[in-house]
User: What shape does this take?
Amino acid sequence: MPPGPRKHVPPLPVRDGLNPTRLVLPHDAASVGRYATAAQYLLERFAHDADRLREKLAAGEVVTGGGAVVDHGTPYEPRGFLYLYRDPPADEPEAPALEELEVLHRDDDLLVVDKPHLVATMPRGRWVTRTVLVHLRATLDLPELVPAHRLDRPTAGVLVLTVRPEVRGAYQTAFQERAVRKVYEAVAPLPAAGSPLDGEGTTTVRSRIVKHRGVVRAQEEPGEPNAESRVTLVARDGARGLGLYRLEPRTGKTHQLRLHMASLGLPLLHDPFWPVLREDAPDDPDRPLQLLARSLAFVDPLSGAPREFRSRRRLAAWPGGEGAGDGGVDGPR
Assistant: This one.
């Protein structure tokens, strides 16, 4: 079988925890006829920040895919690559919970952390430098650190990152091929009479989940199911009408657990998406989404050894939820 295409290696290193941005020069006829130099294209595309871009060009901070410094005479090459460091947004929101990030495990291949609520896994949208990935790259001097999977910003718990590029594919494949057993905990209303959970205490939800570009929430649509979650009610607080649930996703669709719980009439406590979308609601650190990635377990794809990592956190809305949890464990249980 012939080898696949080689991945292009950026000619600029990670700086302050951030990858350089790659731009591809358009190859359509209008662009080819319009631009004589790469700098001309950049200054027009980023006209709103042209002065800062001129500073980067003068400082030699813009390079081609081959690593050559771009100046005002560098010719425009259709489909050519340009690399530069973008400035972090000046109005990036604070992420005070980032200080609570805890390392559960570290070796030559993996870094496992206990992510707090309201901290993004990696740069996206308004959060760039105040994210788990950028923070750990900078503070632990691990420039090649990359997440093996992802946790949504509102969700807390176990997050696995790979330390070296050589092992990245093996661990990411384990997550993609559902070889990792994930267990979450959540606080939500108690099931109503007649609910699938009002009796045996366990049900499996299967549906088709689709996330459309530009739409904030994922949604369920008719068709072949592509998402499956096992839901178990493990404890009741009748006085408050709340339950503690164990959630075991068999798949990893965007918003899967939140959407499946909402479809059961059990929206997670403090969820800004369900049952009512509150897209622009400000973060409330005292009322985070009550969803925790409690544990991850898998057979190590490199060593063959069983591994398990457990969050030390607890959900604050559950009785006794403040303080440390039951600890992170690496190994069989």
Remarks:
- The longest strand covers residues 227-237.
- Helices lie at 29-34, 38-45, 50-58, 132-140, 165-176, 256-263.
- The CA atoms of residues 140 and 329 lie 22 Å apart.
